[in-house]
Amino acid sequence: MGIVGRLGLAALLAGALALPAFAKPLEIRLPSLPYATLGAKALPAMPDPFRDIYVKKAQEHAPGMSDERAQELWYEGIGVQYAQVQELPIDEIRVLQENNIDPSYGKELLSIKNADCDSYFTYDAVVDASTAGITVDEARIIAGMMGGTGNDGLDIVRYWRRGLDWNRTAQLLTQYTRGKRIFSWEGALAYQRLEGEPAIAVQLAQQGLGETAIIKTYERHKELGWLDQIVQFDDTEKPNFLITYPTSDWNKAFSRKETVDYLKSLKEHHDVILRIVQTKQEAYAALDWFPDIQTWSPGGHGSKTRLSFSGDFADIMAGQSEDSVISTCDTELSYHMQNLAPDAVIFLDSCETGKGGAGADNLANHVRSQVGTRKVISSKVSFATKDMRVTSHHPFDVKIEVLRLRFEAPWFRKLFKTQEWAYKTVDTTYSPQAP
């Protein structure tokens, strides 16, 4: 039969088998296979010798495992040895398997709990710990030193990788004063990175400093090379000068080179006591601790009515916690004057605390009303250390002289703000008179 003949026969057969439009379509049914439902999955339950062998071996690794759980692991391609972590979700078991982590190791790390009974370790942290080579015992020791706080095993891994002295860490974490632990976990690590001595931390805490103030005070003394006098200064014939700088220095005003040079120059003429404080209570504690203070210089970022020891610029403008600022609302300053000499000088090393001058509701006038006959020095405007000129060391006196445009008109600023001749030096120092 030719090609044309074959095509004709095919068409004839197709026409003969065609169904009328109203007829139902032909349904072909295949025999269904038996299934066992495990969770949300439908798993074939047909006999399989390999599956049976897997189930038996898996149950040897994890006695008490059900046949259904073993089958689920088998269908997911989970290795027999990982059956011992049977209580974990499939995806988490696979993380261990894909990273070649001993399942018993992963299970032990996951069993390390914090004070809230939550596991320290996520599966990512288990992988990191395994990669770093941390043993289960080491992880338990570090978690114990953390005191049950937090729930991030990555902190344990980070600590291990720093290579710090564990005995020193444990020693710092067991230092107390007034029944309260001095350092938190992170605080102990920060102080240890500075190679801080536990005994010094205890003595600074006894002087009224908190954790952050202790760390910052130690750090600044180390930078200046003054560690030998951090706890007790050499009380010589020179006048005593107490400086309380802020822990928060968002624009580095108190850590620039000119400020470091200023501190070192003061030390040539004074017995300098330096404390980096976070709260006004810590500043008051320094006033109460050290005797015969001739000059007190509280430094901090400020405004017309407040001097801040902590917080960034936004915090200062918004008005942060009362504990962190000396402000025109405070009335307790007069109770901390017993160690300041009657003729002592208080230099407010902070911007704008004298703004408005005499008669204004500013911090300089308020402090002056609290300190008896003692002299108060402030600035009416913002300034930097480079704008300060010490004119006398005993009694201490300083002039604050800043550059200002000769004319404040917008057109003048726009045209000549880059020209040196367009500026003049203005004395912005303000010392309120006795009330």
Describe this structure in words.
With 435 residues, the protein is α/β, with parallel strands linked by helices. It folds into 2 domains: 35-162, no CATH class; 238-430, 3-Layer(aba) Sandwich (Rossmann fold), CATH 3.40.50. The chain contains 17 helices and 16 strands. The protein has a 6-stranded mixed β-sheet, sandwiched between helices. A 3-stranded antiparallel β-sheet has the order 8-9-10, with no helix packed on it. Strands 13-14-15 form a 3-stranded antiparallel β-sheet, with no helix packed on it. A hairpin with a 2-residue loop joins strand 3 and strand 4. The longest helix is centred in the N-terminal third of the chain and has 15 residues, at 3-17. It is elongated and about 100 Å long. It starts with a helix and ends in a 5-residue tail after the last strand. The model is unreliable at 1-41 (pLDDT under 50).
What is the gist of this entry?
By secondary structure, the chain is an alpha/beta fold. The protein has 2 domains: 35-162, no CATH class; 238-430, Rossmann fold, CATH 3.40.50. The protein is built from 17 helices and 16 strands.
In DSSP terms (H or I, runs of 4 or more residues), the helix count works out at 17
Q: Name the structural class.
A: alpha/beta
**Percent of residues in helices:** 25-40%
Spatial gap, N to C terminus? 129 Å
Look at the structure and give the mean pLDDT.
Answer: 84
| Global Rg | 38 Å
CATH architecture of the largest domain: 3-Layer(aba) Sandwich
Low-confidence stretches: 1-41
Which overall shape is indicated by the principal axes computed on the Cα atoms?
A: elongated
Oligomer status: single chain
The CATH topology of the largest domain comes to Rossmann fold
Topology, number of strands: 16
The strands making up the biggest β-sheet line up spatially as 6-5-7-11-12-16
The number of distinct structural domains comes to: 2
Proportion of residues in β-strands: 15-25%
Largest sheet: 6 strands, mixed
CATH class type of the largest domain: Alpha Beta
